[in-house]
Amino acid sequence: MVRRKRNKIEALVNNAGEWIYDNDTLEKKSIDYFHDLYNDDDVSGGKDALWARVLRGKYHCGDDLIPQMKCSSNSSRLWKAVVRNWNHVNDGMEWRVPDCNRLCDIATAPIPSDIFSAKVSEYVTPSGEWNWNQFQFLIPDHARLKIAAILPPSDGNEQDKLDWKFSKDGGFSVKTAYQSIVGMNEGVEDNFFRRVWHLKVPQRVKSFIWLCRHNKLLTNFERVKRCMIDSSICTRCNSGSEDSLHVLRDCPRVKGIWMHLVKPCHWHFFFSADLHSWLKTNLQKNFGSTDLEWTATFAIACWSVWRWHNEHVFGMNDGIHTDPFFTIVQRVHNCNSNFGAMLSNAKRKLERVNKSIKWLPVEVEYGILLLLSGLCTAWIHGFRRVIIEVDSLVAYGMVQGSLSDSHPCASLVWRIHGLLEKDWDVCFQHIYREGNTVTDAMSRAAYQSGKDLSFVDNPPSGVAAALEADLRGFGSSRAVVV
Protein backbone atom coordinates (compact mmCIF):
# COMPACT_ATOMS: atom_id res chain seq x y z
CA MET A 1 0.00 0.00 0.00
CA VAL A 2 1.13 3.54 -0.77
CA ARG A 3 0.12 6.86 0.81
CA ARG A 4 0.64 9.79 -1.58
CA LYS A 5 0.56 13.53 -0.92
CA ARG A 6 1.08 15.92 -3.82
CA ASN A 7 2.72 13.16 -5.97
CA LYS A 8 5.17 12.33 -3.21
CA ILE A 9 5.32 8.94 -1.49
CA GLU A 10 5.10 9.56 2.24
CA ALA A 11 4.71 6.00 3.52
CA LEU A 12 4.91 2.36 2.42
CA VAL A 13 3.71 -0.86 4.00
CA ASN A 14 6.33 -3.57 4.47
CA ASN A 15 5.75 -7.32 4.35
CA ALA A 16 4.76 -7.33 8.03
CA GLY A 17 1.93 -4.84 7.42
CA GLU A 18 3.69 -1.96 9.21
CA TRP A 19 3.72 1.57 7.80
CA ILE A 20 7.16 3.03 7.13
CA TYR A 21 7.59 6.83 7.27
CA ASP A 22 11.37 7.19 7.53
CA ASN A 23 12.72 9.01 4.44
CA ASP A 24 16.02 7.09 4.34
CA THR A 25 14.21 3.76 4.49
CA LEU A 26 11.73 4.85 1.79
CA GLU A 27 14.59 5.97 -0.45
CA LYS A 28 16.37 2.64 0.00
CA LYS A 29 13.21 0.67 -0.79
CA SER A 30 12.68 2.73 -3.95
CA ILE A 31 16.25 2.11 -5.09
CA ASP A 32 15.91 -1.62 -4.41
CA TYR A 33 12.62 -1.71 -6.32
CA PHE A 34 14.04 -0.12 -9.45
CA HIS A 35 17.18 -2.26 -9.17
CA ASP A 36 15.00 -5.37 -9.27
CA LEU A 37 12.93 -3.87 -12.09
CA TYR A 38 15.88 -3.01 -14.32
CA ASN A 39 18.03 -6.03 -13.73
CA ASP A 40 20.59 -7.55 -16.09
CA ASP A 41 17.94 -9.08 -18.37
CA ASP A 42 17.97 -7.43 -21.80
CA VAL A 43 15.18 -7.11 -24.34
CA SER A 44 16.35 -10.13 -26.36
CA GLY A 45 17.32 -12.58 -23.64
CA GLY A 46 14.99 -11.56 -20.76
CA LYS A 47 11.78 -11.01 -22.67
CA ASP A 48 9.62 -11.92 -19.64
CA ALA A 49 11.08 -9.17 -17.45
CA LEU A 50 8.64 -6.40 -16.54
CA TRP A 51 10.40 -3.56 -18.34
CA ALA A 52 11.04 -5.78 -21.38
CA ARG A 53 7.31 -6.55 -21.58
CA VAL A 54 6.55 -2.82 -21.32
CA LEU A 55 8.90 -2.00 -24.21
CA ARG A 56 7.58 -4.88 -26.33
CA GLY A 57 4.00 -3.78 -25.78
CA LYS A 58 4.65 -0.08 -26.31
CA TYR A 59 6.66 -0.46 -29.52
CA HIS A 60 4.95 -3.62 -30.85
CA CYS A 61 8.10 -5.78 -30.90
CA GLY A 62 6.24 -9.11 -30.94
CA ASP A 63 6.45 -12.11 -28.63
CA ASP A 64 9.37 -13.95 -30.27
CA LEU A 65 12.65 -14.38 -28.45
CA ILE A 66 14.24 -11.97 -30.93
CA PRO A 67 12.13 -8.79 -30.99
CA GLN A 68 10.95 -7.15 -34.21
CA MET A 69 12.51 -3.70 -34.13
CA LYS A 70 10.59 -1.04 -36.04
CA CYS A 71 9.74 2.60 -35.57
CA SER A 72 7.07 4.97 -36.81
CA SER A 73 7.18 8.63 -37.72
CA ASN A 74 6.09 9.70 -34.24
CA SER A 75 8.58 7.50 -32.36
CA SER A 76 11.01 9.19 -30.02
CA ARG A 77 14.55 9.99 -31.11
CA LEU A 78 15.88 7.53 -28.57
CA TRP A 79 13.80 4.65 -29.94
CA LYS A 80 14.71 5.54 -33.53
CA ALA A 81 18.37 5.38 -32.54
CA VAL A 82 17.82 1.98 -30.91
CA VAL A 83 16.16 0.63 -34.07
CA ARG A 84 18.86 2.13 -36.27
CA ASN A 85 21.64 0.40 -34.30
CA TRP A 86 19.83 -2.89 -33.64
CA ASN A 87 21.82 -4.59 -36.41
CA HIS A 88 24.86 -4.42 -34.12
CA VAL A 89 22.89 -6.36 -31.50
CA ASN A 90 21.91 -8.98 -34.08
CA ASP A 91 25.58 -9.38 -35.02
CA GLY A 92 26.45 -10.16 -31.40
CA MET A 93 23.70 -12.70 -30.70
CA GLU A 94 24.31 -16.42 -30.99
CA TRP A 95 22.29 -19.49 -30.10
CA ARG A 96 23.11 -21.94 -27.34
CA VAL A 97 21.53 -25.18 -28.52
CA PRO A 98 21.31 -27.65 -25.61
CA ASP A 99 17.85 -28.67 -26.89
CA CYS A 100 16.98 -29.78 -30.45
CA ASN A 101 16.12 -26.55 -32.22
CA ARG A 102 15.44 -26.34 -35.96
CA LEU A 103 18.24 -25.36 -38.27
CA CYS A 104 16.12 -22.61 -39.85
CA ASP A 105 15.73 -20.97 -36.43
CA ILE A 106 19.42 -20.81 -35.58
CA ALA A 107 21.18 -20.74 -38.95
CA THR A 108 23.21 -17.62 -39.71
CA ALA A 109 23.52 -18.40 -43.44
CA PRO A 110 21.21 -19.83 -46.15
CA ILE A 111 20.69 -23.60 -45.95
CA PRO A 112 19.42 -26.06 -48.59
CA SER A 113 15.65 -26.38 -48.87
CA ASP A 114 15.66 -30.14 -48.31
CA ILE A 115 17.02 -29.73 -44.76
CA PHE A 116 15.34 -26.39 -43.98
CA SER A 117 13.03 -27.92 -41.34
CA ALA A 118 15.65 -30.28 -39.93
CA LYS A 119 16.65 -30.16 -36.27
CA VAL A 120 20.16 -30.09 -34.93
CA SER A 121 19.39 -33.24 -32.93
CA GLU A 122 18.83 -35.13 -36.21
CA TYR A 123 22.59 -34.98 -36.73
CA VAL A 124 23.24 -36.84 -33.48
CA THR A 125 23.58 -40.61 -33.15
CA PRO A 126 21.36 -42.60 -30.75
CA SER A 127 24.32 -42.82 -28.38
CA GLY A 128 24.48 -39.02 -28.15
CA GLU A 129 27.48 -38.35 -30.41
CA TRP A 130 27.71 -36.22 -33.55
CA ASN A 131 26.74 -38.13 -36.71
CA TRP A 132 29.66 -36.91 -38.82
CA ASN A 133 28.69 -38.89 -41.91
CA GLN A 134 25.66 -36.65 -42.45
CA PHE A 135 27.35 -33.26 -42.54
CA GLN A 136 31.16 -33.35 -42.32
CA PHE A 137 31.49 -33.14 -46.11
CA LEU A 138 29.54 -29.85 -46.10
CA ILE A 139 31.83 -27.85 -43.80
CA PRO A 140 35.55 -26.96 -43.78
CA ASP A 141 38.12 -28.54 -41.49
CA HIS A 142 38.32 -25.68 -38.99
CA ALA A 143 34.52 -25.81 -38.52
CA ARG A 144 34.61 -29.58 -37.94
CA LEU A 145 37.21 -29.16 -35.21
CA LYS A 146 35.09 -26.54 -33.48
CA ILE A 147 31.92 -28.65 -33.69
CA ALA A 148 33.82 -31.63 -32.28
CA ALA A 149 34.42 -29.61 -29.10
CA ILE A 150 30.71 -28.79 -28.67
CA LEU A 151 28.37 -30.99 -26.67
CA PRO A 152 25.66 -32.45 -28.97
CA PRO A 153 22.07 -31.37 -28.15
CA SER A 154 19.44 -33.67 -26.71
CA ASP A 155 15.73 -33.58 -25.88
CA GLY A 156 16.39 -33.79 -22.15
CA ASN A 157 18.35 -30.55 -21.89
CA GLU A 158 16.97 -27.09 -21.18
CA GLN A 159 15.51 -24.81 -23.85
CA ASP A 160 17.69 -23.06 -26.40
CA LYS A 161 18.91 -19.61 -25.41
CA LEU A 162 20.30 -16.45 -26.95
CA ASP A 163 23.69 -15.34 -25.67
CA TRP A 164 25.96 -12.39 -26.30
CA LYS A 165 29.00 -13.82 -28.09
CA PHE A 166 31.35 -10.91 -27.36
CA SER A 167 31.43 -11.53 -23.59
CA LYS A 168 32.94 -14.44 -21.72
CA ASP A 169 29.85 -15.17 -19.63
CA GLY A 170 27.26 -14.71 -22.41
CA GLY A 171 25.72 -11.61 -20.81
CA PHE A 172 25.21 -8.35 -22.68
CA SER A 173 27.14 -5.23 -21.70
CA VAL A 174 27.52 -1.82 -23.30
CA LYS A 175 31.31 -2.14 -23.10
CA THR A 176 31.51 -5.32 -25.18
CA ALA A 177 28.93 -3.97 -27.63
CA TYR A 178 31.00 -0.83 -28.17
CA GLN A 179 34.17 -2.88 -28.58
CA SER A 180 32.52 -5.07 -31.21
CA ILE A 181 31.32 -2.03 -33.19
CA VAL A 182 34.73 -0.33 -33.27
CA GLY A 183 36.63 -3.60 -33.76
CA MET A 184 38.26 -3.83 -30.33
CA ASN A 185 37.11 -7.31 -29.29
CA GLU A 186 39.39 -8.79 -26.66
CA GLY A 187 40.98 -12.10 -27.58
CA VAL A 188 40.36 -11.68 -31.32
CA GLU A 189 43.62 -11.64 -33.19
CA ASP A 190 43.86 -9.04 -35.95
CA ASN A 191 45.11 -11.17 -38.83
CA PHE A 192 44.98 -8.24 -41.23
CA PHE A 193 47.46 -6.30 -39.12
CA ARG A 194 49.76 -9.32 -39.01
CA ARG A 195 49.64 -9.67 -42.79
CA VAL A 196 50.38 -6.00 -43.31
CA TRP A 197 53.18 -6.14 -40.76
CA HIS A 198 54.88 -9.04 -42.58
CA LEU A 199 54.72 -7.45 -46.03
CA LYS A 200 58.16 -7.12 -47.62
CA VAL A 201 57.59 -3.52 -48.64
CA PRO A 202 58.76 -0.14 -47.29
CA GLN A 203 57.16 1.15 -44.13
CA ARG A 204 55.35 3.96 -45.96
CA VAL A 205 53.56 1.33 -48.09
CA LYS A 206 52.50 -0.60 -44.98
CA SER A 207 51.14 2.58 -43.41
CA PHE A 208 49.25 3.37 -46.60
CA ILE A 209 47.60 -0.10 -46.70
CA TRP A 210 46.60 0.34 -43.06
CA LEU A 211 44.95 3.67 -43.92
CA CYS A 212 43.11 1.99 -46.79
CA ARG A 213 41.85 -0.72 -44.44
CA HIS A 214 40.24 1.94 -42.24
CA ASN A 215 39.01 3.95 -45.26
CA LYS A 216 41.00 7.02 -44.20
CA LEU A 217 42.18 8.23 -47.62
CA LEU A 218 41.32 11.89 -48.19
CA THR A 219 39.38 11.41 -51.42
CA ASN A 220 36.82 13.83 -52.84
CA PHE A 221 34.07 11.75 -51.26
CA GLU A 222 35.61 12.27 -47.82
CA ARG A 223 36.29 15.94 -48.51
CA VAL A 224 32.61 16.51 -49.31
CA LYS A 225 31.63 14.84 -46.02
CA ARG A 226 33.95 17.27 -44.22
CA CYS A 227 32.52 20.26 -46.12
CA MET A 228 35.88 20.98 -47.76
CA ILE A 229 34.53 20.89 -51.36
CA ASP A 230 31.12 20.76 -53.03
CA SER A 231 31.53 17.89 -55.53
CA SER A 232 32.78 14.32 -55.05
CA ILE A 233 33.28 13.65 -58.79
CA CYS A 234 36.65 12.15 -59.73
CA THR A 235 38.79 14.83 -61.40
CA ARG A 236 40.68 12.28 -63.50
CA CYS A 237 37.76 10.55 -65.23
CA ASN A 238 34.78 12.83 -64.40
CA SER A 239 32.54 9.74 -64.37
CA GLY A 240 32.04 8.68 -60.77
CA SER A 241 32.22 9.54 -57.10
CA GLU A 242 35.82 9.51 -55.93
CA ASP A 243 35.91 7.20 -52.92
CA SER A 244 38.77 4.92 -51.88
CA LEU A 245 37.75 2.04 -54.15
CA HIS A 246 37.28 4.34 -57.13
CA VAL A 247 40.73 5.88 -56.71
CA LEU A 248 42.54 2.58 -56.18
CA ARG A 249 40.62 0.24 -58.52
CA ASP A 250 37.51 1.43 -60.37
CA CYS A 251 38.73 4.59 -62.07
CA PRO A 252 39.13 4.00 -65.86
CA ARG A 253 42.62 5.50 -65.61
CA VAL A 254 43.54 2.77 -63.10
CA LYS A 255 41.50 -0.25 -64.18
CA GLY A 256 43.80 -1.00 -67.12
CA ILE A 257 46.79 -1.28 -64.76
CA TRP A 258 45.04 -3.94 -62.67
CA MET A 259 43.96 -5.85 -65.78
CA HIS A 260 47.65 -6.25 -66.65
CA LEU A 261 48.62 -7.25 -63.10
CA VAL A 262 45.72 -9.64 -62.31
CA LYS A 263 44.99 -12.92 -64.07
CA PRO A 264 41.79 -12.74 -66.18
CA CYS A 265 40.24 -15.66 -64.27
CA HIS A 266 40.19 -13.48 -61.13
CA TRP A 267 38.80 -10.32 -62.70
CA HIS A 268 35.20 -10.97 -61.64
CA PHE A 269 35.95 -11.06 -57.91
CA PHE A 270 38.74 -8.51 -58.07
CA PHE A 271 36.57 -5.80 -59.62
CA SER A 272 33.37 -6.58 -57.67
CA ALA A 273 34.49 -6.99 -54.04
CA ASP A 274 33.98 -4.30 -51.42
CA LEU A 275 36.95 -2.46 -49.95
CA HIS A 276 37.42 -4.66 -46.88
CA SER A 277 37.12 -7.97 -48.77
CA TRP A 278 39.27 -6.62 -51.59
CA LEU A 279 42.18 -5.75 -49.31
CA LYS A 280 41.87 -8.85 -47.13
CA THR A 281 41.66 -11.33 -50.02
CA ASN A 282 44.52 -9.80 -51.99
CA LEU A 283 46.78 -10.13 -48.95
CA GLN A 284 45.85 -13.82 -48.62
CA LYS A 285 45.65 -15.21 -52.16
CA ASN A 286 47.71 -14.99 -55.34
CA PHE A 287 45.90 -13.15 -58.13
CA GLY A 288 49.01 -11.98 -59.95
CA SER A 289 49.83 -12.59 -63.61
CA THR A 290 53.59 -12.36 -62.96
CA ASP A 291 56.01 -14.54 -61.02
CA LEU A 292 56.46 -11.86 -58.36
CA GLU A 293 55.04 -12.22 -54.88
CA TRP A 294 51.48 -10.96 -55.20
CA THR A 295 51.06 -9.46 -51.73
CA ALA A 296 54.03 -7.13 -52.23
CA THR A 297 52.97 -6.38 -55.81
CA PHE A 298 49.45 -5.53 -54.72
CA ALA A 299 50.58 -3.25 -51.89
CA ILE A 300 53.10 -1.38 -54.04
CA ALA A 301 50.57 -1.06 -56.87
CA CYS A 302 47.99 0.50 -54.53
CA TRP A 303 50.56 2.92 -53.15
CA SER A 304 51.77 3.82 -56.66
CA VAL A 305 48.22 4.45 -57.90
CA TRP A 306 47.55 6.76 -54.95
CA ARG A 307 50.83 8.60 -55.55
CA TRP A 308 50.03 9.15 -59.21
CA HIS A 309 46.59 10.38 -58.23
CA ASN A 310 48.09 12.96 -55.86
CA GLU A 311 50.58 14.08 -58.50
CA HIS A 312 47.68 14.74 -60.84
CA VAL A 313 45.69 16.61 -58.18
CA PHE A 314 48.61 18.88 -57.28
CA GLY A 315 49.64 19.40 -60.91
CA MET A 316 53.09 17.86 -60.57
CA ASN A 317 52.64 15.42 -63.47
CA ASP A 318 50.05 12.90 -64.58
CA GLY A 319 52.28 9.85 -64.77
CA ILE A 320 51.44 9.40 -68.47
CA HIS A 321 55.01 9.55 -69.66
CA THR A 322 55.86 6.30 -67.84
CA ASP A 323 54.46 2.79 -68.25
CA PRO A 324 52.53 2.11 -65.01
CA PHE A 325 52.79 -1.68 -65.30
CA PHE A 326 56.57 -1.81 -65.73
CA THR A 327 57.04 0.94 -63.14
CA ILE A 328 55.22 -1.16 -60.54
CA VAL A 329 57.12 -4.31 -61.52
CA GLN A 330 60.43 -2.45 -61.26
CA ARG A 331 59.54 -1.13 -57.81
CA VAL A 332 58.70 -4.66 -56.65
CA HIS A 333 62.06 -5.91 -57.98
CA ASN A 334 63.84 -3.11 -56.13
CA CYS A 335 62.05 -3.99 -52.89
CA ASN A 336 62.93 -7.67 -53.25
CA SER A 337 66.59 -6.89 -53.90
CA ASN A 338 66.76 -4.47 -50.97
CA PHE A 339 65.15 -6.96 -48.59
CA GLY A 340 67.46 -9.69 -49.87
CA ALA A 341 70.48 -7.52 -49.14
CA MET A 342 69.18 -6.76 -45.65
CA LEU A 343 68.70 -10.47 -44.93
CA SER A 344 72.20 -11.32 -46.14
CA ASN A 345 73.68 -8.63 -43.91
CA ALA A 346 71.59 -9.83 -40.98
CA LYS A 347 72.96 -13.36 -41.36
CA ARG A 348 76.53 -12.09 -40.96
CA LYS A 349 75.77 -10.40 -37.64
CA LEU A 350 74.24 -12.91 -35.30
CA GLU A 351 73.11 -11.26 -32.10
CA ARG A 352 71.07 -12.55 -29.25
CA VAL A 353 67.59 -11.07 -29.14
CA ASN A 354 65.08 -11.53 -26.32
CA LYS A 355 61.61 -12.17 -27.71
CA SER A 356 58.30 -12.45 -25.93
CA ILE A 357 56.40 -15.57 -26.98
CA LYS A 358 52.65 -15.07 -27.15
CA TRP A 359 50.47 -17.96 -26.01
CA LEU A 360 46.80 -18.04 -26.96
CA PRO A 361 44.85 -20.12 -24.42
CA VAL A 362 42.23 -22.58 -25.61
CA GLU A 363 38.56 -21.84 -25.12
CA VAL A 364 37.20 -22.69 -21.67
CA GLU A 365 34.40 -24.72 -23.29
CA TYR A 366 36.95 -27.22 -24.59
CA GLY A 367 38.40 -27.81 -21.13
CA ILE A 368 34.94 -28.25 -19.57
CA LEU A 369 33.95 -30.69 -22.32
CA LEU A 370 37.12 -32.72 -21.69
CA LEU A 371 36.21 -32.94 -18.00
CA LEU A 372 32.72 -34.15 -18.90
CA SER A 373 34.11 -36.74 -21.33
CA GLY A 374 36.57 -37.96 -18.71
CA LEU A 375 33.84 -38.34 -16.09
CA CYS A 376 31.57 -40.23 -18.51
CA THR A 377 34.42 -42.56 -19.48
CA ALA A 378 35.34 -43.26 -15.85
CA TRP A 379 31.71 -44.01 -14.93
CA ILE A 380 31.11 -46.29 -17.91
CA HIS A 381 34.23 -48.35 -17.19
CA GLY A 382 33.35 -48.88 -13.54
CA PHE A 383 35.73 -46.53 -11.74
CA ARG A 384 34.14 -45.35 -8.48
CA ARG A 385 37.04 -43.50 -6.83
CA VAL A 386 38.40 -40.91 -9.25
CA ILE A 387 40.85 -38.01 -8.92
CA ILE A 388 40.77 -35.54 -11.82
CA GLU A 389 43.66 -33.11 -12.20
CA VAL A 390 42.81 -29.83 -13.96
CA ASP A 391 45.46 -27.36 -15.15
CA SER A 392 42.90 -24.66 -16.03
CA LEU A 393 42.10 -22.62 -12.94
CA VAL A 394 39.07 -21.10 -14.69
CA ALA A 395 37.60 -24.51 -15.51
CA TYR A 396 38.38 -25.73 -11.99
CA GLY A 397 36.46 -22.80 -10.50
CA MET A 398 33.48 -23.33 -12.81
CA VAL A 399 33.11 -26.98 -11.86
CA GLN A 400 33.32 -26.18 -8.15
CA GLY A 401 30.78 -23.33 -8.31
CA SER A 402 27.60 -22.42 -10.16
CA LEU A 403 27.00 -20.48 -13.38
CA SER A 404 24.22 -18.29 -14.70
CA ASP A 405 21.90 -19.60 -17.38
CA SER A 406 23.42 -17.31 -20.01
CA HIS A 407 26.98 -18.58 -19.56
CA PRO A 408 28.32 -20.52 -22.58
CA CYS A 409 29.48 -23.38 -20.35
CA ALA A 410 26.31 -23.61 -18.25
CA SER A 411 24.90 -26.76 -19.88
CA LEU A 412 28.27 -28.55 -19.65
CA VAL A 413 28.69 -27.67 -15.97
CA TRP A 414 25.14 -28.83 -15.22
CA ARG A 415 25.90 -32.17 -16.87
CA ILE A 416 29.04 -32.49 -14.74
CA HIS A 417 27.10 -31.70 -11.57
CA GLY A 418 24.56 -34.35 -12.56
CA LEU A 419 27.32 -36.95 -12.86
CA LEU A 420 28.81 -35.94 -9.52
CA GLU A 421 25.49 -36.74 -7.81
CA LYS A 422 25.87 -40.42 -8.70
CA ASP A 423 27.08 -42.99 -6.18
CA TRP A 424 30.85 -42.54 -6.49
CA ASP A 425 33.71 -40.49 -5.08
CA VAL A 426 35.17 -37.83 -7.39
CA CYS A 427 37.82 -35.31 -6.37
CA PHE A 428 39.00 -32.36 -8.50
CA GLN A 429 42.53 -31.05 -8.02
CA HIS A 430 44.16 -28.06 -9.67
CA ILE A 431 47.72 -28.55 -10.87
CA TYR A 432 50.09 -26.34 -12.82
CA ARG A 433 50.43 -26.85 -16.54
CA GLU A 434 54.08 -27.85 -16.11
CA GLY A 435 52.92 -30.84 -14.07
CA ASN A 436 50.42 -31.99 -16.68
CA THR A 437 52.92 -33.17 -19.31
CA VAL A 438 51.26 -36.59 -19.68
CA THR A 439 47.99 -35.02 -20.80
CA ASP A 440 49.86 -32.79 -23.25
CA ALA A 441 51.67 -35.80 -24.70
CA MET A 442 48.40 -37.72 -25.09
CA SER A 443 46.78 -34.72 -26.78
CA ARG A 444 49.61 -34.45 -29.29
CA ALA A 445 49.40 -38.17 -30.04
CA ALA A 446 45.61 -38.04 -30.47
CA TYR A 447 45.62 -35.01 -32.77
CA GLN A 448 45.98 -37.14 -35.92
CA SER A 449 43.87 -40.10 -34.74
CA GLY A 450 40.40 -38.71 -35.45
CA LYS A 451 37.65 -37.07 -33.41
CA ASP A 452 36.18 -40.14 -31.67
CA LEU A 453 37.23 -41.45 -28.27
CA SER A 454 39.65 -44.37 -28.61
CA PHE A 455 41.57 -46.64 -26.22
CA VAL A 456 45.08 -48.03 -26.67
CA ASP A 457 46.73 -50.91 -24.86
CA ASN A 458 50.28 -49.75 -25.58
CA PRO A 459 50.81 -45.97 -25.47
CA PRO A 460 52.94 -44.29 -28.17
CA SER A 461 56.59 -43.62 -27.48
CA GLY A 462 56.05 -39.96 -26.62
CA VAL A 463 53.28 -40.79 -24.14
CA ALA A 464 55.27 -43.66 -22.63
CA ALA A 465 58.24 -41.37 -22.00
CA ALA A 466 55.99 -38.80 -20.32
CA LEU A 467 54.37 -41.51 -18.16
CA GLU A 468 57.76 -42.80 -17.06
CA ALA A 469 58.93 -39.30 -16.16
CA ASP A 470 55.71 -38.69 -14.24
CA LEU A 471 56.13 -41.93 -12.26
CA ARG A 472 59.66 -40.91 -11.30
CA GLY A 473 58.50 -37.49 -10.20
CA PHE A 474 60.25 -35.56 -12.95
CA GLY A 475 58.59 -32.43 -14.30
CA SER A 476 59.17 -29.20 -16.14
CA SER A 477 60.59 -26.16 -14.40
CA ARG A 478 58.24 -23.28 -13.72
CA ALA A 479 59.28 -19.64 -13.95
CA VAL A 480 57.90 -17.60 -11.06
CA VAL A 481 58.01 -13.80 -10.99
CA VAL A 482 59.19 -12.60 -7.58
TrEMBL record:
Keywords: Nucleotidyltransferase, RNA-directed DNA polymerase, Transferase. Gene3D superfamilies: Ribonuclease H-like superfamily/Ribonuclease H. Residues 371-445 form the RNase H type-1 domain. The keyword Cell wall biogenesis/degradation does not apply. Signal peptide: none annotated. GO terms for molecular function: nucleic acid binding; RNA-directed DNA polymerase activity; RNA-DNA hybrid ribonuclease activity. The keyword Transferase applies. It holds the Pfam family zf-RVT. InterPro entries: RNase_H-like_dom_plant (IPR044730), RNaseH-like_sf (IPR012337), RNaseH_domain (IPR002156), RNaseH_sf (IPR036397), RVT-Znf (IPR026960). Residues 172-258 form the Reverse transcriptase zinc-binding domain. It comes from the Eukaryota. This is Non-LTR retroelement reverse transcriptase-like. It comes from Senna tora.
